[in-house]
Amino acid sequence: MYTNTTRMTGLSGLDTDTLVKQLMAAESIKYNALKKQNTILEWKQEAYRATAKVLSDFQTSFLDLTSSKSLRLTSSFGGFASTVKNALGADSTKIGVATSSNSKEGTYTFEVTSLATKSKFTGFDGAVTQAGNIVSSKNLRDDPGFLSTLEAGDTIKFSLDGTTKTVTITEDFLGSGADNFATKLNDALNAAYKKSIFNVRIGTSAEGGKLSIGVTEKGHDFKIYQGSGDGLTSTAKNTITYPPAIATFSFDVAKTLQDGTPSGPVTINVNFDGSEDNQVKVLARINEAIQAEASGAFAHLKAINQDGKIAFKSEEEPSTFKITAPTSGGDLLQEMGFDRAEITLKKGSTIETLGFSDGDDSTKTFLSKTVGEINPSIFGVPGNTNTNTTFDFDGKSLLINKTDTMQEVMDKINNTSLADVEIKFDSLNYRFTMEAKQEGQANGFLDAGIDDKLKLLFGFVDDTASGFTSFEAAEDAVLTINGVTTTRDSNKFTIDGIGITLKEKTEIGETLTIEVKKDNSKGVDLVKEFVAEYNKLVDHLKTQYETSRPKSGQYAHYDPLTDDEKANMSDKQIELWEEKAKSGLLYRDSLIEKVLSDLRMTMFQKVDVGDGKTLSLQQIGITTGDYTNGGKLIIDENKLKTAFDQRGNDIVTMFTKTSSDKKVKGITSTQLGIGEKVNNVLNAAVGTVDGKDGTFRARAGILGTYSANHNNLTDQIKRQSTKIDDMLTYLIKKEDSYYNMFAKLESAMMQADSQMQYITAQLGM
Known about the structure:
Structural class: alpha+beta
């Protein structure tokens, strides 16, 4: 049936549906034929595209100019081998050698008197001693109240070279002043790590009164973390039954500022209406009540989920919150399962109270300090109001602000065109280094060209007492090559296409010998891989071309199945049928025949390799079998290796030669290499030539390109689909006409039957 219309038939006893179906069977033959033809077109397009992909993949691997295996690039064939030997014939690593396709064979002797160096400043060790400490951001000496915000049991976590220890604050840390706190913390750190290498002190008021925690030895990675015991100090069970009974529960809350100023207490009434059937809703109801009844004074108090249980948390500093049972009404604390009537809360952690941040380390803390903090003297005499200054660097200027951090100043120097230099912080020795990015006198800078303020800030100063000199001038490399003494402004340079890297000086009287020889192994391997993949390509094309469509009987082919045919088959039977039906669709295809023919032709042609000489694959040990194997290639590997040894450059030319003359396109031209010819053959199939689509592209389209929807088969499929739609419209009308005809017949039969019954009744029969 061709419509979903519900029909009332058979009232006369006539099997109308069966009759219409039998009549429509003949009408449906052409419709099914059109659908089969359309399916074959779609399958054929898929077969073309699958073959086109095989061609494209081969082209990408061996002919694309971005491929390391491209037969159109001389660099793909390699290669030269090099050795560096001393006078005894042993390998040496004092000189590095890199060859390329432009290298030349040869032998070179080297003596390296000195290496090229960079201009460099090295900071004096004592210039940035603060870098060994983690320094707090608060003036704790002039703020003795900080001790009252700490409690016995609070913790601080430290990491020394990856080993983590936790220091717990006890009662003897507190109540005896800032210096006592620093002393106790110092003792606790030394005890925790069993090393007397820590230095904890609180600076004088003139120094800012900050807590400094450091390691007296160099080379340690020292960090501070928030302790696991910090934060919420309640010991509640933090459980509640859902939903709570419909009632009003209450608790009282008060807070005290660090200066002792009280606020509250206030009673918080929480009205539950019975809809709070999960923890999220309960928390929301409590927090709504806090915001509504506390008039903003307790806005930083929150009810939270802590490890799956309800708890309270303070997010305000330096206040301390106290939550107590209500003087009257339902006790929410009791309902929530707290095991005491009073909860004390404070914001954050011990390290925040002391003025540190979680994860602070000595290097990060130092580099995050501002220039004004590290060395305000560079902005002028004490008491001046200058907020910026300039660094002069080899005649160029860089603006520095007091509020710039040391890291930002480093970034300004490294990331601007101020000079070709790089400045780094050495966290192992707590000092800065600055050096030119390139070696040699011509690329360096002079001590006199660097601003004294920059030197002072980064500790680039001499220490006469120890004999330390901060500046090192750049030097050129001095060496002797093949007996000729020369200089280079870099340790990396090129001779005859050979890259040389000087790594170490040679000893007095020591001579190194570099030998560069042609290495044909890469070229041989490339040609072997090309031949192997070329033969696979030919196999695929030959199989498509020679496989005919199988027959399901003596005459009929395996055609696409109709819906009615599929209904009487299993899924496996359908799969096997369609596998055969899709086979052989490109049998004796002219496009495949053309590609096979052209590829065979390119493999027989000679190439002009210059100096009146020509070369072909046959001459280097690669031949083709007869036509029955599709033109697959056969390699004589020994002959190929010998040919590379004797005519390596000619072989590379045979594959890579190209021509600027646009008229030279033919696959028989001696002016084009094999790589160019094969590429032209494949472009003519799956690419474009002079703006025109290749044969496969025009016939079936290439997925992912404009041609995918603009090609001959797609146009045929669209036209065929239109015919199918027209035929379906015709069949629907024809089916309707048959049903109308039989409906009239049934009506007439029923009327005749009614008349007969009437006559019979009148006659008394």
